[in-house]
UniProtKB/TrEMBL annotation:
GO terms for molecular function: ADP-ribosyl-[dinitrogen reductase] hydrolase activity; metal ion binding. It comes from Paludisphaera borealis. It comes from the Bacteria. Its cofactor is Mg(2+). The gene is draG_1. This is ADP-ribosyl-[dinitrogen reductase] glycohydrolase.
């Protein structure tokens, strides 16, 4: 059942961030798999399949949140915004996040060494996957949308196709945020297509939209467009899925993920457009509530969206960081996995104290992901003090090797 039309900027901002997280978390278990393998193992991917029924986000959502944080800090100063994003991205990289693409690794190493420019000549989808929130934040400011979008993309990617792919994702999100959910989706993407000058990328987007207009099957469209982490493939197939199935967010996501390839990044971009068009109220609440509600979880993303909405109106607002309060983290005994739930005080002490230590944030994030829903009493007893996580060996990464395109 559809919710009310969510026309408030805050609803579209939370929609774009939560839509990114939803697509990312749904597609994560299928990254790098073929359509045939996904069908055999999972059937229709209409729930989280990574670790039980809990959803986990990856670099697509995390980098989108870092972009949002930088925009909230410096909404009118592109140079300061870029520097803030570079610092945040380098800190995030040093925490050993899951699924970092090769282009992002190389860029972060260049930043760490003080080399300029930090971006590398890669046509991966790493800049595009995080760009949608820029378009929604600057929905009524096209000059800033272009300037910030290009500058933030070039932090990691300098290939014109990657940069214009990011600009297209942001422009499409902007068009969605400025329209009603019933708007003609192909027309929105045709309007966004105007920011693309690169011939190869533009022709790929046109093919995707043409396939949607002809009613092509998703499997056939995936074969024509491609589903890899190459930005030309990613953006074209996401455009097809949005134009074909975007009236029903869950169907659009399951169709995109079922095609395989770089499933989480394609679904993250698609989910961002769906959230920007439909607003948070028309995304599946039951699934969003099952996304792990730690750093970069739903509570954090909603807080970022609320902050961005305030900043759009020119009002000052405290910028959230890794947790909703923007402070050092949760207090022992009150850490929640999703709104309205609590977890063991042992785990709260373990993660809360670690996150309260500046040097322990990354280890706590890794520990939190590795432990999932378990209650780590035995592990906690072996860690003294709780914030000293050196020597902890977390569970093997169950994800496939990250695509070198990103």
């Amino acid at each position: 059942m559809k919710g009310p039309i969510d026309d408030a900027p805050a609803g579209r901002l939370s929609g774009v961030l939560l839509g990114t997280a939803l697509g990312d978390a749904l597609g994560l278990a299928c990254e790098g798999m073929s359509a045939e393998a996904i069908a055999r193992r999972f059937g229709v991917v209409d729930r989280f399949r990574m670790l039980g029924r809990t959803g986990f986000v990856s670099d697509d959502t995390e980098q989108s949140a870092l972009i949002a944080q930088s925009l909230a800090k410096f909404p009118d100063d592109v140079d300061a915004c870029v520097r803030s994003f570079q610092r945040s991205l380098l800190g995030w990289f040093c925490r050993l996040p899951w699924g970092v693409g090769m282009a992002t690794i190389r860029s972060c190493l260049r930043m760490g060494l003080g080399l300029s420019p930090s971006g590398v000549m890669s046509a991966g989808n790493g800049a595009a996957m995080r760009a949608a929130v820029i378009g929604v934040f600057f929905q009524d400011r096209p000059n800033e949308r272009s300037t910030f979008g290009r500058a933030l993309a070039e932090v990691t990617h300098r290939d014109p196709r990657a940069v214009e792919g990011a600009l297209f994702v942001a422009e499409a999100a902007s068009c969605c945020a400025g329209s009603s959910p019933g708007a003609h989706r192909t027309a929105l993407l045709v309007q966004a297509r105007s920011v693309v000058d690169d011939l190869e990328l533009g022709m790929a987007i046109d093919r995707g939209l043409s396939l949607a207009e002809k009613g092509a099957d998703t499997h056939d469209a995936a074969q024509v467009c491609g589903t890899s982490g190459f930005v030309v493939h990613t953006v074209a197939f996401a455009a097809y899925c949005f134009a074909s199935h975007g009236a029903e967010p869950m169907r659009a996501l399951t169709e995109a993920i079922g095609a395989g390839g770089d499933a989480d990044s394609i679904a993250a971009i698609l989910g961002a457009w769906l959230g920007a068009l439909h607003g948070e109220s028309n995304l599946p609440e039951s699934l969003i509530d099952r996304i792990h509600d730690g750093a970069f979880g739903p509570t954090h993303l909603r807080s970022l969206a609320a902050c961005l909405a305030e900043r759009r109106e020119g009002r000052s607002s405290r910028v959230p960081r890794y947790f909703a309060g923007g402070g050092p983290g949760p207090q022992p005994g009150v850490v929640s996995r999703r709104p309205g739930t609590r977890i063991s005080s042992t785990r709260a002490v373990l993660t809360g104290r670690a996150i309260g230590q500046e040097g322990g944030r990354g280890q706590a994030h890794i520990l939190d992901h590795a432990l999932g829903p378990c209650q780590p009493r035995r592990i906690a007893s072996q860690l003294a003090p709780a914030h000293n996580l050196r020597g902890f060996r977390h569970a093997p990464n169950p994800r496939p090797e990250p695509s070198s395109w990103n």
